[in-house]
């Protein structure tokens, strides 16, 4: 098995390192192809006919690494079609610095990479962790538990590959992946996004309403019960 590892926080992000460490622990062959810099909120976007730069970088936890000056989905297209990599059997995306749940999940570049892989017939797992501090300083968060939680979750999902095609995992810092709930994507919005005129930017805050939730929602499990949420999707 050959894994593709990517993300939307950039190839030097602590979550990517944690995921690479987890894959190394499991002894699975992999290559990292990740954006050159942060690409949060890129969804499944990529531009055709626009040249992008790419180059090999220092290995990530011993795993060969390429960074691409484009989005996570573009990294997947590069990995699957450029001929630079061996054939890919599974795409891993993350571990994102901050949870990706609720009705606006498709905004996530982390999840967008898995969607791109899935559209090309390659199964994938998107992994995110809850916010662990200031959103703009993820290197200062506690990442010590994330590689272990990722390895355990990957082991479980890989042992049950007949039951899913794509998966969205959100690690709670409270249970650290040890007591996950299998969920569906909520129809409620988890993040509230507004365009702030003063700053000239879209600002996001957590702003779901508990009365809009269903018992099997990812928001219910993650935010209300403080448990890791795993949403499995079968191939159509």
Automatic annotation (TrEMBL):
It comes from the Bacteria. It catalyses: a ribonucleoside 5'-phosphate + H2O = a ribonucleoside + phosphate. Keywords: Hydrolase, Metal-binding. Residues 4-188 form the Survival protein SurE-like phosphatase/nucleotidase domain. GO terms for molecular function: 5'-nucleotidase activity; metal ion binding. Its EC number is 3.1.3.5. PANTHER family: 5'-NUCLEOTIDASE SURE, PHOSPHATASE, PUTATIVE (AFU_ORTHOLOGUE AFUA_4G01070)-RELATED. Belongs to the SurE nucleotidase family. This is 5'-nucleotidase. It comes from Nocardia alba.
């Amino acid at each position: 098995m050959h894994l593709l590892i990517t993300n939307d926080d950039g190839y030097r992000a602590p979550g990517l390192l944690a995921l690479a460490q987890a894959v190394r622990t499991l002894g699975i062959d992999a290559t990292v192809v990740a954006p050159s810099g942060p690409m949060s909120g890129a969804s499944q976007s990529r531009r055709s006919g626009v040249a992008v730069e790419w180059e090999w970088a220092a290995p990530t936890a011993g795993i060969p690494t390429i960074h691409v000056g484009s989005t996570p989905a573009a990294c997947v297209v590069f990995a699957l079609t450029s001929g630079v990599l061996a054939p890919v059997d599974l795409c891993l995306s993350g571990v994102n610095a901050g949870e990706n749940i609720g009705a606006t999940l498709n905004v996530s570049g982390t999840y967008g990479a898995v969607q791109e892989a899935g559209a090309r017939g390659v199964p994938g797992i998107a992994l995110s962790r809850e916010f662990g501090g200031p959103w703009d300083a993820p290197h200062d968060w506690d990442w010590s538990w994330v590689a272990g939680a990722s390895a355990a979750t990957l082991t479980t999902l890989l042992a049950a590959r007949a039951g899913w095609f794509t998966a969205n995992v959100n690690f709670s810092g409270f249970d650290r992946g040890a007591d996950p709930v299998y969920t569906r994507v909520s129809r409620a919005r988890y993040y509230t996004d507004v365009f702030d005129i003063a700053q000239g930017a879209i600002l996001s805050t957590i702003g779901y309403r508990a009365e809009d939730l269903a018992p099997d929602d990812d928001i219910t499990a993650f935010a209300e019960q403080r448990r890791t949420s795993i949403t499995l999707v079968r191939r159509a």
